[in-house]
Write a structure and sequence with these properties.
Alpha-Beta Plaits, 4 helices, alpha+beta, 163 residues
C-alpha cells in the first residue's frame, strides 16, 4: 500500500530563522479542553483566563522561550481550551549575527511541545502547527487584536452552539 505524501506546511521561500514576526497556532489532540479550568466561562481578555495544570505548564514554558532562545521575544500569546496562539519576534541577538546559531521556528516549537509533553506526562499535541509570517504593521495589529479577542469569540462560538 502506497503512503500519501504530506504537503509541506512551511513555505520553501521563507527562512524561518530570519528576523521577523511569526504568528503560530498549536492545536491539541482531538480539539479537547486541555488548558482551561472552566471552558464554558466567559473571559474578556487573555489575562482573565483561569488555566488548569496543563495550561499553567504551557504558560510557563511560553514565558521562558527567551531564556532558551535569546533572539526570540514572545510579543503576545493566548492559551485557549484546545489550542495556543503565539506571536514570536525573531530579533538581532547581541554579540552575534550568525543565523547558523539560530534555531528555526519548527525546532523551537517542537522543543517547546516536547518540554510540555515531558512535564504533562504524555503528548497532547497534533502533529504540526500553523504559521503566518507577519508582513506589515497592519497585519501585526490585526493579529494582536485576534489574539486578544480570541477568548471572547470562544465563549460566544462554543457556549451557545453546544446548547
Amino acid at each position: 500500500m502506497e503512503l500519501k505524501t504530506r504537503k509541506p506546511l512551511r513555505s520553501p521561500y521563507i527562512d524561518y530563522k530570519h528576523i521577523g514576526v511569526y504568528f503560530i497556532t498549536l492545536s491539541a489532540e482531538q480539539r479537547k479542553n486541555h488548558f482551561w479550568k472552566y471552558p464554558n466561562k466567559k473571559y474578556d481578555t487573555p489575562d482573565d483566563i483561569e488555566l488548569n495544570e496543563h495550561g499553567s505548564i504551557a504558560a510557563e514554558v511560553i514565558r521562558r522561550i527567551p531564556e532558551f532562545y535569546p533572539y526570540v521575544m514572545v510579543d503576545s500569546f493566548v492559551i485557549m481550551p484546545d489550542h495556543i496562539h503565539l506571536l514570536l519576534r525573531f530579533c538581532v541577538q547581541e554579540g552575534t549575527e550568525d543565523a547558523r546559531q539560530r534555531k528555526s521556528i519548527s525546532v523551537i516549537i517542537n522543543q517547546m511541545k516536547g518540554h510540555m509533553t515531558k512535564q504533562i506526562g504524555r503528548s497532547i499535541w497534533k502533529h504540526s502547527f500553523f504559521d503566518h509570517v507577519i508582513r506589515n504593521d497592519n497585519d501585526y495589529e490585526e493579529t494582536m487584536k485576534y489574539i486578544y479577542l480570541n477568548p471572547i469569540r470562544w465563549y460566544y462560538k462554543y457556549s451557545f452552539s453546544e446548547k
